[in-house]
């Protein structure tokens, strides 16, 4: 059945208290927050942030994320190189966690956000409700991709206590942290209400 949207009724939804008010108002009559029907330039900002994250993801995988210094020799390790090393050492569960959190989650979030931006612009793809669920899942799981940086930080702290081996974060750690932060900001800047504007609001 067809369901009217707040936009079609010339209403705005408050981001703070979710009260519906006339689009002519600039402040929420309940809490005083700024009112706008759609986040201004949401798609443009989101795409710009996604492109930035995509560029940062290249050095995050090419350059070493950590450097191990032992007995005068240094051995750099990339994200995938560290996963392979953990598998060879028999730490398959840890390798799986790092691979999922550091490779699958960031790539999946980037692809999902690109797809949602395309859907919001063109109106093609899944139903609006399914797109909204996809957005909420993407926004939630994206925060867990920071685990690789946490692993490096913990290794640096623990190994520094030994004295024989030293682990230093590489350039990729900074780039990867940038990927996670930028994609989180991109997800926050995306206005999911745009997904409903490009559909006929007909649910199956």
Characterize this entry briefly.
The protein is 55% helix and 10% strand.
Question: How would you describe this protein?
Answer:
By secondary structure, the chain is mainly alpha-helical. It folds into two domains: 1-37; 41-197, Butyryl-CoA Dehydrogenase, subunit A, domain 3, CATH 1.20.140. It is 55% helix and 10% strand. The chain contains seven helices and five strands. It has helices spanning 42-62, 79-88, 92-122, 128-141, 147-159, 171-189, 194-197; strands at 11-13, 20-22, 66-70, 73-77, 165-169. Strands 4-3-5 form a three-stranded antiparallel sheet. Helix 1 runs antiparallel to helix 6 (171-189). The longest helix is centred in the middle third of the chain and has 31 residues, at 92-122. The model is unreliable at 200-204 (pLDDT under 50).
SSE inventory with pairings:
Layout: E1 11-13, E2 20-22, H1 42-62, E3 66-70, E4 73-77, H2 79-88, H3 92-122, H4 128-141, H5 147-159, E5 165-169, H6 171-189, H7 194-197
Antiparallel strand pairs: 1-2, 3-4, 3-5
Helix pairs in contact: 1-3, 1-6, 2-3, 3-4, 3-6
What is the CATH-assigned architecture of the largest domain? Up-down Bundle
Fraction of residues in helix = 40-55%
Provide the low-confidence segments as ranges: 200-204
Beta fraction: 5-15%
Order of helices and strands: EEHEEHHHHEHH
Number of separate structural domains? 2
Number of strands: 5
Strand order of the largest sheet: 4-3-5
Calculate the mean pLDDT score and round it.
75
- Total DSSP helices: 7
Euclidean distance between termini CA atoms: 8 Å
CATH level-3 fold name of the largest domain: Butyryl-CoA Dehydrogenase, subunit A, domain 3
- Classified by CATH, the class of the largest domain is Mainly Alpha
Question: Sheet bearing the most strands, described?
Answer: 3 strands, antiparallel
What is the global morphology? elongated
Structural class: mainly alpha
> What is the radius of gyration?
22 Å
């Amino acid at each position: 059945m067809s369901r009217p949207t707040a936009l079609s009724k010339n209403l705005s939804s408050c981001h703070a208290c979710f009260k519906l008010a006339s689009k002519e108002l600039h402040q929420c009559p309940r809490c005083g927050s700024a009112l706008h029907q759609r986040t201004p330039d949401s798609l443009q900002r989101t795409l710009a942030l996604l492109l930035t994250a995509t560029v940062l993801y290249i050095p995050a995988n090419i350059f070493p994320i950590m450097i191990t210094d032992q007995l005068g020799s240094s051995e750099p390790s990339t994200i995938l190189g560290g996963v392979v090393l953990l598998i060879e050492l028999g730490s398959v569960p840890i390798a799986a966690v790092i691979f999922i959190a550091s490779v699958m989650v960031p790539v999946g979030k980037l692809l999902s956000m690109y797809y949602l931006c395309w859907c919001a612009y063109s109106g093609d793809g899944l139903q609006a409700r399914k797109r909204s669920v996809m957005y909420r899942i993407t926004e939630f799981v994206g925060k867990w991709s920071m685990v690789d940086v946490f692993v490096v930080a913990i290794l640096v702290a623990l190994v520094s206590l030994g004295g024989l081996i030293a682990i230093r974060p590489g350039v990729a750690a900074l780039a990867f942290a940038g990927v996670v932060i930028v994609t989180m900001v991109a997800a926050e800047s995306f206005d999911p209400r745009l997904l409903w504007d490009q559909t006929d609001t007909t649910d199956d």
